[in-house]
Amino acid sequence: MPTADGPRRPDPLAHLRRPGDPACDAHLTGTVFLDIVFTGLDGAPVRGTETWARGMGSCPGGVANMATALARLGLRTRLAAAFGDDRYGEYCWETLERDEGIDLSPSRVLAGWHSPVTVSMAYEGERTMVSHGHLAPLSPTAPTGGRAPDPARSCVASLAPGEPQEWIARAAGAGSVVFADTGWDETGRWDLSSLDGLAHCAAFLPNAEEAMRYTRTDSPHRAVRALAEHVPLAVVTMGARGAVAADAGTGELVEVPALPVTVLDPTGAGDVFMAGFVTGTLAGWPPADRLAFAALTAGLSVQEFGGSLSAPCWDQIAAWRRRTLRAGGAPARYDFLDALIVDIEPGAGGGPGDGTRTDGPVPGRPLRRAVPTLGFGDHSH
């Protein structure tokens, strides 16, 4: 129900919460970037020319994309990351902790270390990125992946070939549900056995290209079945074609289409998809509902600038549901959401393209969006 602090915020795990449960629903560790995103490009920049973009936004990126998406969906989110002591790092910390309500207690600010930066150029439904940064200096106070995090319902890991991930086994042994994705294998070997910790993961969510290379298959559907031989639940994301999942226990294969939308900026869409899938899994939804919800959250995110600050909250999901119902095109696939969003007041929050601002995860604060200049965002507080 609405409160004095603002509109009601659904808790998708409310029916599961018990005294003594971990205070954290989702623990993440990784690198936070400052993302600078250019949109409105008609095509890729051409060497020797100057290209003007019609849109631009700045926001926390990297692991901040998924952390923000999880927090906006109502999960109690904790992030262990290194932050630079420059203005970029200060902006990212403040945005994540104050505006998004993310627990940064295991994170550290490192003196003299500048924040990693990514410039992303979005065009033709895709994006090209240029990044710069240095490894965080090793110190006793810097977050490390070597020790298991404090108790959490779930942990999200990024698996890299040959990179030790001993903490995954310890986290899984302590009762955390571990979700994992991966990135491009720069070694070119594409060897599943090189992904340390995979055997302890409850779900693995690579994209189609990664999945097919790792499994030596020629289709996402063959790849997801092959991956299900290694993890209880395998999910392969297929971009505009949606996603497909295979349950190792039941042999069930589930496929959902992507949300039909006009893509403004796909930055962080995979992270938002993961956040939706983690939320549905922890809530105990069937695999088909988890996939559909993940596709919905990703579809809403690509209609806004930036990765982290384009992630939808429940107010936006409710607004989307109302719009589709009014238009007579609401797919029955999403009926399962109605029990969660029934008490959200109409007008409490808009959605992409509505021209309105929505209330964010922290009651009483407007939902922050990516802006061209960092200082602009500070005036609303």
Strands, helices and their partners?
Blueprint: E1 24-29, E2 32-39, E3 55-62, H1 63-72, E4 77-80, E5 82-84, H2 87-99, E6 108-110, E7 117-123, E8 126-132, E9 152-159, H3 166-173, E10 177-182, E11 203-204, H4 208-215, H5 220-227, E12 233-237, E13 243-247, E14 253-256, H6 269-282, H7 287-301, H8 314-326, H9 338-341
Helix pairs in contact: 1-6, 4-5, 6-7
Helix and strand run: EEEHEEHEEEEHEEHHEEEHHHH
Low-confidence runs of at least 5 consecutive residues = 1-7, 139-145, 348-364, 377-381
The amount of beta strand, in percent, is: 15-25%
Largest sheet strand order: 4-1-9-10-11-12-13-14
Largest sheet: 8 strands, mixed
Overall shape: globular
| Mean pLDDT across every amino acid position | 86
Task: Supply Rg.
Answer: 20 Å
Structural class estimated from helices and strands: alpha/beta
Helix content: 10-25%
How far apart the termini lie comes to 25 Å
Give me the count of strands: 14
Discrete helix count:
9
